[in-house]
Amino acid sequence: MTVSKATADAVKASRPNGREPLDGADENAALQLGELSDLLGYSLKRAQLKVFEDFLRCVAPLQLTPAQFSVLLLLDRNPGRNQTEIANTLGILRPNFVSMLDALESRDLCTRMRSTNDRRSHILMLTDKGRAVLARAKKLVATKHEARLNELLGPSGRVALLTMLSKIASEF
To answer: What confidence tens digit (pLDDT) does each residue in 107-159 have?
Structure first.
């Protein structure tokens, strides 16, 4: 079988630095991370991905993302606040937040109403169904997801990690 020059060039270009694999290199061996494993940003992102994967497995029956869960939690604690406040608190960009609210509203988990104080603004409220879904989600998160993290970290590790993450979030 012959390989066209274009195909060979595409394969070569897909390799780091366009190089051929080293002779004798085991393509099944784990990649060496080098200095990546010492970078806090990389380690935080990898940990976040693992935590989100576990969260999604735990709440799979409810089909909630971590961001949607966060929105429902804030709406439960802060009924009648406007959507800009909720989005800003969670660090969600406006277009993404509007799309998320559309999805939550289509599932009858929350509702948007024009503010009586500012007609340009919408206030957000959980629906009865939203409160019920949130109650189920909180139970799943506490008994499965957070319980696994607590077991992994231990009580003092949990407190230390929360303290460090809070410091990063407030200082950056």
So the answer is: 999 999 987 887 778 899 999 999 999 999 999 999 999 999 999 999 999 99
For the stretch 120-134, pLDDT in tens is: 788 999 999 999 999
Whether the CB-CB separation of 71 and 91 falls below 8 Å is answered with: no
SS3 string, the chain, reads CCCCHHHHHHHHHCCHHHCCCCCCCCCCCCCCCHHHHHCHHHHHHHHHHHHHHHHHHHCHHHCCCHHHHHHHHHHHHCCCCEHHHHHHHHCCCHHHHHHHHHHHHHCCCEEEEECCCCCCCEEEEECHHHHHHHHHHHHHHHHHHHHHHHHHHHHHHHHHHHHHHHHHHHHC
Spell out the residues 6+ positions from residue 153 whose beta carbon is closer than 8 angstroms to its own.
161
pTM above 0.85, yes or no: no
